[in-house]
Write a structure and sequence with these properties.
Length: 148
């Protein structure tokens, strides 16, 4: 099961990122124009689902999914997340039953706070935070956005 960062881990990550930015600036790299305020936080227990991996990691938990404007079908779904296969998010929707939603057409997706989700989350170890894993965010996959 995946969990959450605790405040001390956020503070440690913030310091490491700040140190890396400062080191880059000392050798002449400009990573941030002008003054900046760095904030590191946990996505929260009812976190947004943005990476393909999120949809498989959180399978079995309740999620809310809003489809992008122009999607041919129901716009909003809520139900048990079943995973992801071949670019389609699998969800057991409370009204529509089992649905396959194209990830590229999802405007937003997030976990729903439930007792099961609370029980499944625990603090994460921040080791490996130096490693970056890149994935295409949902916002980059679709041109059209659903109204908030």
């Amino acid at each position: 099961a995946t969990g959450q960062l605790v405040i001390d881990q956020c503070a440690q990550l913030s310091q490491r990122i700040s140190d890396a930015i400062d080191a880059a600036e000392e050798v002449g790299e400009v990573l941030v124009e002008g003054a900046y305020h760095l904030e590191v936080s946990s996505p929260g227990i009812d976190r947004p689902l943005t990476r393909s991996k999120d949809f498989s990691d959180w399978a079995g938990h309740e999620a809310k999914i809003a489809m992008a404007k122009g999607y041919d079908g129901q716009r909003n779904y809520k139900g048990e997340l079943l995973g992801i296969e071949e670019g389609e998010v699998l969800l057991k929707d409370a009204k529509a039953g089992d649905v396959r939603l194209p990830r590229a057409r999802i405007h937003s997706a997030r976990l729903v706070l439930t007792d099961a989700l609370i029980a499944a989350t625990r603090p994460l170890d921040a080791s490996g935070a130096d490693e970056l894993i890149e994935d295409t965010p949902i916002s980059d996959l679709t041109e059209e956005k659903a109204d908030d």
